[in-house]
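Aim 2, interim progress: modelling of the iron/sulfur cluster-bound target.
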Amino acid sequence: MTPAEKLRVVSWSGGKDSTATIILAHEHGIPLDLIVMGLLWFDKKRGIYAEHPEHLEWVKNYAKPLFESWGYKVELVDSKRDYMNYFYQVRQESQYPEYVGKYYGWLIGGMCKMSGEKPAAVKAYLKSLNTETEEYIGIGIDEPERLERLRKQKGKISLLERFGKTTADAREICRPYGLISPNYEITSRGGCWFCPNQKTKEHAYLKVNHPEYWDELLKLDAAENTIQRCFSYSKTFSEIAAEVDEYIAHPPPPPPEQLSIFDYM
Ligand code: SF4
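Predicted structure of the complex, ligand included:
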Protein backbone atom coordinates (compact mmCIF):
# COMPACT_ATOMS: atom_id res chain seq x y z
CA MET A 1 0.00 0.00 0.00
CA THR A 2 1.42 3.40 -0.93
CA PRO A 3 0.86 6.35 1.42
CA ALA A 4 -1.65 7.80 -1.07
CA GLU A 5 -3.82 4.68 -1.00
CA LYS A 6 -6.57 4.02 1.45
CA LEU A 7 -6.35 1.29 4.07
CA ARG A 8 -8.83 -1.43 3.13
CA VAL A 9 -10.49 -2.59 6.30
CA VAL A 10 -13.14 -5.03 7.48
CA SER A 11 -14.61 -4.18 10.86
CA TRP A 12 -15.25 -7.76 11.95
CA SER A 13 -17.93 -8.54 14.52
CA GLY A 14 -17.54 -12.31 14.30
CA GLY A 15 -21.09 -12.49 12.94
CA LYS A 16 -21.82 -14.24 9.67
CA ASP A 17 -22.18 -11.08 7.55
CA SER A 18 -18.80 -9.51 8.33
CA THR A 19 -17.17 -12.96 8.28
CA ALA A 20 -18.66 -13.67 4.84
CA THR A 21 -17.30 -10.29 3.70
CA ILE A 22 -13.77 -11.44 4.57
CA ILE A 23 -14.33 -14.76 2.77
CA LEU A 24 -15.64 -12.99 -0.35
CA ALA A 25 -12.54 -10.78 -0.37
CA HIS A 26 -10.36 -13.89 0.00
CA GLU A 27 -12.15 -15.87 -2.71
CA HIS A 28 -12.22 -12.99 -5.20
CA GLY A 29 -8.68 -11.76 -4.58
CA ILE A 30 -9.83 -8.41 -3.19
CA PRO A 31 -6.93 -7.03 -1.14
CA LEU A 32 -7.54 -6.37 2.56
CA ASP A 33 -5.00 -4.51 4.67
CA LEU A 34 -6.65 -5.01 8.03
CA ILE A 35 -9.36 -6.93 9.84
CA VAL A 36 -10.24 -5.27 13.12
CA MET A 37 -12.50 -6.50 15.91
CA GLY A 38 -13.53 -4.65 19.06
CA LEU A 39 -13.78 -6.73 22.23
CA LEU A 40 -15.94 -5.87 25.22
CA TRP A 41 -15.00 -6.55 28.83
CA PHE A 42 -16.93 -7.52 31.93
CA ASP A 43 -14.02 -6.94 34.33
CA LYS A 44 -10.67 -5.96 32.84
CA LYS A 45 -8.81 -6.16 36.16
CA ARG A 46 -9.65 -9.84 36.52
CA GLY A 47 -9.37 -10.62 32.79
CA ILE A 48 -13.05 -11.46 32.27
CA TYR A 49 -14.33 -10.59 28.81
CA ALA A 50 -17.95 -9.76 28.05
CA GLU A 51 -17.92 -12.04 25.03
CA HIS A 52 -19.19 -15.58 25.44
CA PRO A 53 -16.13 -17.77 26.12
CA GLU A 54 -17.04 -20.15 23.30
CA HIS A 55 -17.12 -17.24 20.83
CA LEU A 56 -13.85 -15.82 22.08
CA GLU A 57 -12.14 -19.18 21.84
CA TRP A 58 -13.39 -19.51 18.24
CA VAL A 59 -12.22 -15.98 17.38
CA LYS A 60 -8.76 -16.32 18.90
CA ASN A 61 -7.92 -19.93 18.18
CA TYR A 62 -9.74 -20.67 14.93
CA ALA A 63 -10.97 -17.73 12.88
CA LYS A 64 -8.13 -15.28 13.49
CA PRO A 65 -5.37 -17.81 12.70
CA LEU A 66 -7.27 -18.87 9.56
CA PHE A 67 -7.52 -15.27 8.33
CA GLU A 68 -3.84 -14.76 9.14
CA SER A 69 -3.00 -17.87 7.10
CA TRP A 70 -4.73 -16.11 4.19
CA GLY A 71 -2.23 -13.26 4.61
CA TYR A 72 -4.51 -10.83 6.45
CA LYS A 73 -3.52 -8.76 9.45
CA VAL A 74 -6.06 -9.18 12.27
CA GLU A 75 -6.20 -6.82 15.25
CA LEU A 76 -8.36 -7.37 18.33
CA VAL A 77 -8.82 -4.08 20.15
CA ASP A 78 -10.13 -3.68 23.68
CA SER A 79 -13.01 -1.46 24.65
CA LYS A 80 -12.10 1.34 27.03
CA ARG A 81 -14.64 0.84 29.81
CA ASP A 82 -15.86 -2.45 31.22
CA TYR A 83 -19.13 -3.48 32.84
CA MET A 84 -17.65 -2.86 36.30
CA ASN A 85 -16.97 0.76 35.35
CA TYR A 86 -20.59 1.26 34.43
CA PHE A 87 -22.09 -0.72 37.32
CA TYR A 88 -19.98 0.95 40.00
CA GLN A 89 -20.05 4.45 38.55
CA VAL A 90 -21.23 6.84 41.27
CA ARG A 91 -24.08 9.13 40.35
CA GLN A 92 -22.97 12.72 40.91
CA GLU A 93 -26.22 14.53 40.24
CA SER A 94 -29.89 13.72 39.75
CA GLN A 95 -33.32 15.26 40.01
CA TYR A 96 -33.84 12.60 42.68
CA PRO A 97 -31.58 13.56 45.59
CA GLU A 98 -31.72 10.03 47.03
CA TYR A 99 -29.81 8.76 43.94
CA VAL A 100 -26.80 11.03 44.38
CA GLY A 101 -23.74 9.22 45.74
CA LYS A 102 -25.10 5.78 44.84
CA TYR A 103 -23.82 3.32 42.23
CA TYR A 104 -25.68 3.21 38.91
CA GLY A 105 -26.11 -0.59 39.16
CA TRP A 106 -27.42 -2.81 36.37
CA LEU A 107 -27.33 -1.44 32.84
CA ILE A 108 -30.81 -1.01 31.47
CA GLY A 109 -32.09 -3.37 28.75
CA GLY A 110 -32.87 -1.45 25.56
CA MET A 111 -30.74 1.50 26.74
CA CYS A 112 -27.44 -0.24 27.42
CA LYS A 113 -24.70 2.34 27.81
CA MET A 114 -22.05 -0.23 26.91
CA SER A 115 -23.37 -0.78 23.39
CA GLY A 116 -21.29 2.10 22.02
CA GLU A 117 -18.02 0.75 23.46
CA LYS A 118 -17.22 -1.71 20.68
CA PRO A 119 -17.63 0.65 17.69
CA ALA A 120 -15.81 3.35 19.68
CA ALA A 121 -12.83 1.00 20.24
CA VAL A 122 -12.63 0.20 16.51
CA LYS A 123 -13.03 3.85 15.53
CA ALA A 124 -10.32 4.96 17.97
CA TYR A 125 -7.96 2.27 16.68
CA LEU A 126 -8.51 3.25 13.02
CA LYS A 127 -8.07 6.91 13.91
CA SER A 128 -4.76 6.10 15.61
CA LEU A 129 -3.47 4.77 12.26
CA ASN A 130 -3.86 8.26 10.84
CA THR A 131 -4.74 6.94 7.37
CA GLU A 132 -7.78 7.20 5.16
CA THR A 133 -9.79 3.99 5.13
CA GLU A 134 -12.11 2.13 2.81
CA GLU A 135 -14.37 -0.09 4.90
CA TYR A 136 -16.10 -3.24 3.74
CA ILE A 137 -19.33 -3.64 5.69
CA GLY A 138 -21.43 -6.83 5.87
CA ILE A 139 -24.85 -5.78 4.59
CA GLY A 140 -26.85 -8.14 2.37
CA ILE A 141 -29.01 -7.32 -0.65
CA ASP A 142 -32.05 -8.22 1.48
CA GLU A 143 -31.35 -5.19 3.69
CA PRO A 144 -32.27 -2.34 1.32
CA GLU A 145 -32.68 0.33 3.99
CA ARG A 146 -29.29 -0.38 5.54
CA LEU A 147 -27.73 -0.42 2.06
CA GLU A 148 -29.31 2.90 1.26
CA ARG A 149 -27.83 4.40 4.41
CA LEU A 150 -24.44 2.80 3.59
CA ARG A 151 -24.36 4.39 0.13
CA LYS A 152 -24.56 7.81 1.75
CA GLN A 153 -21.44 7.11 3.82
CA LYS A 154 -18.11 7.95 2.23
CA GLY A 155 -15.59 5.11 1.97
CA LYS A 156 -17.96 2.29 2.94
CA ILE A 157 -18.82 -0.60 0.63
CA SER A 158 -20.77 -3.86 0.96
CA LEU A 159 -19.11 -6.85 -0.70
CA LEU A 160 -22.28 -8.89 -0.09
CA GLU A 161 -24.08 -6.36 -2.28
CA ARG A 162 -21.30 -6.36 -4.89
CA PHE A 163 -21.64 -10.13 -5.28
CA GLY A 164 -25.47 -10.19 -5.02
CA LYS A 165 -25.59 -12.07 -1.70
CA THR A 166 -28.28 -12.04 0.97
CA THR A 167 -27.69 -12.36 4.71
CA ALA A 168 -28.92 -15.98 4.42
CA ASP A 169 -26.28 -16.55 1.71
CA ALA A 170 -23.68 -15.20 4.16
CA ARG A 171 -24.20 -18.17 6.45
CA GLU A 172 -23.70 -20.57 3.53
CA ILE A 173 -20.54 -18.72 2.51
CA CYS A 174 -19.16 -19.19 6.05
CA ARG A 175 -20.21 -22.82 6.53
CA PRO A 176 -17.60 -24.66 4.38
CA TYR A 177 -14.78 -22.85 6.21
CA GLY A 178 -16.13 -23.66 9.69
CA LEU A 179 -16.53 -19.92 10.12
CA ILE A 180 -19.92 -19.83 11.85
CA SER A 181 -19.37 -18.62 15.40
CA PRO A 182 -20.58 -20.88 18.23
CA ASN A 183 -22.53 -17.80 19.35
CA TYR A 184 -25.23 -18.88 16.89
CA GLU A 185 -25.74 -22.05 18.95
CA ILE A 186 -25.97 -20.11 22.20
CA THR A 187 -27.82 -16.89 21.54
CA SER A 188 -30.27 -15.57 18.98
CA ARG A 189 -28.44 -12.23 18.67
CA GLY A 190 -24.85 -12.62 19.93
CA GLY A 191 -23.59 -10.10 22.44
CA CYS A 192 -22.45 -10.20 26.06
CA TRP A 193 -23.01 -13.18 28.35
CA PHE A 194 -24.70 -10.88 30.87
CA CYS A 195 -26.88 -9.05 28.34
CA PRO A 196 -30.28 -8.17 29.85
CA ASN A 197 -31.90 -8.59 26.44
CA GLN A 198 -31.29 -12.33 26.38
CA LYS A 199 -34.03 -14.91 26.53
CA THR A 200 -34.56 -17.22 29.52
CA LYS A 201 -32.99 -20.14 27.68
CA GLU A 202 -29.88 -18.05 27.01
CA HIS A 203 -29.52 -17.12 30.68
CA ALA A 204 -30.09 -20.80 31.47
CA TYR A 205 -27.27 -21.74 29.11
CA LEU A 206 -24.94 -19.47 31.07
CA LYS A 207 -25.96 -20.86 34.44
CA VAL A 208 -25.54 -24.48 33.31
CA ASN A 209 -22.38 -24.08 31.25
CA HIS A 210 -20.58 -21.22 33.00
CA PRO A 211 -21.70 -21.24 36.63
CA GLU A 212 -18.69 -19.09 37.57
CA TYR A 213 -20.11 -16.28 35.40
CA TRP A 214 -23.58 -16.78 36.83
CA ASP A 215 -21.99 -16.32 40.28
CA GLU A 216 -20.61 -12.98 39.08
CA LEU A 217 -24.17 -11.84 38.43
CA LEU A 218 -25.27 -13.07 41.86
CA LYS A 219 -22.49 -11.00 43.42
CA LEU A 220 -23.58 -7.90 41.53
CA ASP A 221 -27.17 -8.48 42.58
CA ALA A 222 -26.05 -8.50 46.20
CA ALA A 223 -24.20 -5.16 45.83
CA GLU A 224 -25.60 -2.47 48.09
CA ASN A 225 -26.22 1.17 47.39
CA THR A 226 -27.26 0.73 43.76
CA ILE A 227 -29.91 2.73 41.94
CA GLN A 228 -30.95 0.37 39.16
CA ARG A 229 -32.25 -2.76 40.90
CA CYS A 230 -33.90 -4.32 37.83
CA PHE A 231 -31.64 -6.61 35.81
CA SER A 232 -33.82 -7.04 32.74
CA TYR A 233 -36.40 -4.35 32.02
CA SER A 234 -38.85 -4.48 34.97
CA LYS A 235 -37.54 -7.76 36.38
CA THR A 236 -35.02 -8.10 39.17
CA PHE A 237 -32.20 -10.59 38.90
CA SER A 238 -33.95 -12.79 41.48
CA GLU A 239 -37.05 -12.91 39.26
CA ILE A 240 -34.97 -13.79 36.20
CA ALA A 241 -33.05 -16.40 38.23
CA ALA A 242 -36.35 -18.01 39.28
CA GLU A 243 -37.43 -18.20 35.62
CA VAL A 244 -34.06 -19.71 34.72
CA ASP A 245 -34.37 -22.35 37.45
CA GLU A 246 -37.86 -23.20 36.26
CA TYR A 247 -36.59 -23.49 32.68
CA ILE A 248 -33.74 -25.77 33.72
CA ALA A 249 -36.00 -27.93 35.91
CA HIS A 250 -38.83 -28.13 33.39
CA PRO A 251 -37.45 -27.43 29.91
CA PRO A 252 -39.97 -27.35 27.08
CA PRO A 253 -39.75 -30.53 25.00
CA PRO A 254 -37.20 -30.18 22.21
CA PRO A 255 -38.18 -30.83 18.60
CA PRO A 256 -37.60 -34.53 17.78
CA GLU A 257 -34.48 -33.97 15.70
CA GLN A 258 -32.76 -31.89 18.41
CA LEU A 259 -31.42 -33.21 21.66
CA SER A 260 -30.30 -30.22 23.74
CA ILE A 261 -32.69 -28.13 25.82
CA PHE A 262 -30.88 -25.10 24.46
CA ASP A 263 -31.39 -25.98 20.80
CA TYR A 264 -34.79 -24.42 20.28
CA MET A 265 -36.48 -21.11 20.92
S1 SF4 B 1 -24.81 -7.17 24.08
FE1 SF4 B 1 -26.25 -6.38 25.61
S2 SF4 B 1 -25.00 -5.96 27.44
FE2 SF4 B 1 -23.60 -6.17 25.70
S3 SF4 B 1 -23.31 -4.07 24.98
FE3 SF4 B 1 -24.96 -4.95 23.77
S4 SF4 B 1 -26.85 -4.37 24.82
FE4 SF4 B 1 -25.14 -4.07 26.26
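The two ends are 47 Å apart (CA to CA). The longest strand covers residues 34-39.
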